[in-house]
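Data availability (excerpt). The following record was deposited with the supplementary files.
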Amino acid sequence: MSRQIQLRRGTTAQNDKFTGAVGEVTVDTDAKTLRVHDGETPGGTVISNTDYATEASLPSGNYVDMALLPSISEYIAPANGYYMLAIFSGGSEYCNMTNETNGIGVFKSTNLAGQLSSFMVPVCKNDRVTLNYNYSGAVVYFRFVYAKGEI
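Predicted structure:
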């Protein structure tokens, strides 16, 4: 005999108002997502209904150039896509770009002046990315590239 497990479920509006027990999982029947609750936060935390690689998708030709903020600055992804950085090295330098939300990151160090270093980190909307560097060379570009289908 098979068993059926059924979780609490409701619309997005109903889920947004509900505060579940610690570790409780509910179903949003509108968005077709799961939510994990902590006993305190109304609405819980949404778990994506697609896997990360599918959600991030492939880069599109649409991007926005950004100002490179001081080292150890944080950026919040405006959509699914990629943060990309290209810099000509001025000498002995390093750069570390990390998606703090999922732990994906890239690191590069160099001792060669004039070497082109480029970095790309995938993100989903609202992911937090930090950039830690000591580059003194010229910035070729720092941009956010939207995933296909985002805009």
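Summary of structural features: The mean pLDDT is 84.
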